Amino acid sequence: MATVVTNGGRDVITNRLGAAGTAEPKNIGWGVSAGTASVTDTTLFGERLVDLSTAAGTDHTVGTSTQQTTTVTNDTYQVVGTRTATGAGTVTNAGLFTAASGGTLFLKGDFTGIGLSTSDSIQFTIKAVFA
Amino acid sequence: MSMEVADSRVKQATIEVVVLRANGTREDLGVVSYWHRNPLKRLAWRLKLWRP
């Protein structure tokens, strides 16, 4: 069960520091397949739509991003968002993307499967701490 | 003269989860996925998961 800022995520960070136009990575996706997150990953494990039985395409949920303080002032990038399942399944990993559909995978984490029935939701709080 | 370059990697990354069931039940699962630059902290978090 690891959470990583991917190599693509590092590209996003440096690109945004240079104001080079990369969109903010505040879009939340989820997947249903097993695996351990790695910095070289560019996709989730078995990404699904909000209908967990559907694999076609992506429909990331736009989260709310804020700066938080973990160790020193504003050292943490946080995204909070809620995805509601319109079809049942077991969520095993999630991540942040730069777009509501497609986009670059910024951060990814895997975890013990969470079974959802139709109309169940997961509220994600995803944090990257820099200090 | 000396030069110091701070380590600029991400220090910690986490995913916290609250499951909201259709029947109104709320299940706060806390941190479900964790990484810390310090391997001892990663080990400590894994051991905590095994605690009964």
Map the helices and strands.
The complex is a heterodimer of chains A (131) and B (52).
Chain A (H helix, E strand, L loop, with lengths): L2 E3 L1 H11 L9 E5 L15 E2 L12 E2 L1 E5 L7 E9 L4 E9 L7 E12 L4 E9 L2
Antiparallel strand pairs in A: 1-8, 2-3, 2-4, 2-7, 5-6, 6-9, 7-8
Chain B lengths: L11 E9 L5 E11 L2 H12 L2
Antiparallel strand pairs in B: 1-2
Instruction: Characterize the largest beta sheet of chain A: strand count, sense, and whether it forms a barrel.
Output: 6 strands, antiparallel
Strand composition percent of chain A: 35-45%
The H/E string of chain B reads EEH
Total beta strand runs of chain B: 2
The residue ranges of chain B in which pLDDT falls below 50 over 5 or more consecutive positions are none
Order of helices and strands of chain A: EHEEEEEEEE
How would you state the average pLDDT of chain A, rounded? 93
* CA-atom Rg of chain A in angstroms: 14 Å
Residues in β-strands, percent of chain B: 35-45%
Descriptive labels:
heterodimer; A: 1 helix; B: 52 residues; alpha+beta; two-stranded antiparallel sheet; 2 strands; 23% helix
Would you kindly provide a written description of the structure presented here, covering whatever features stand out?
- The complex is a heterodimer of chains A (131) and B (52).
- In chain A, strands 1, 2, 3, 4, 7 and 8 form a 6-stranded antiparallel β-sheet that branches. In chain A, strands 5-6-9 form a 3-stranded antiparallel β-sheet, with no helix packed on it.
- In chain A, 8% of the residues lie in helices and 43% in strands.
- The longest helix of chain A has 11 residues, at 7-17.
- Chain A is globular, with a radius of gyration of 14 Å.
- In chain A, strand 7 (89-97) and strand 8 form a beta hairpin.
- Chain A is mainly beta and 131 residues long.
- Chain B is an alpha+beta fold.
- In chain B, 23% of the residues lie in helices and 38% in strands.
- A two-stranded antiparallel ribbon of chain B has the order 1-2.
- Chain B is elongated, with a radius of gyration of 17 Å.
- Chain B starts with 11 loop residues before the first strand and ends with a helix.
- In chain B, 19% of the residues are buried.
- Strand 9 (121-129) of chain A pairs antiparallel with strand 1 (12-20) of chain B.
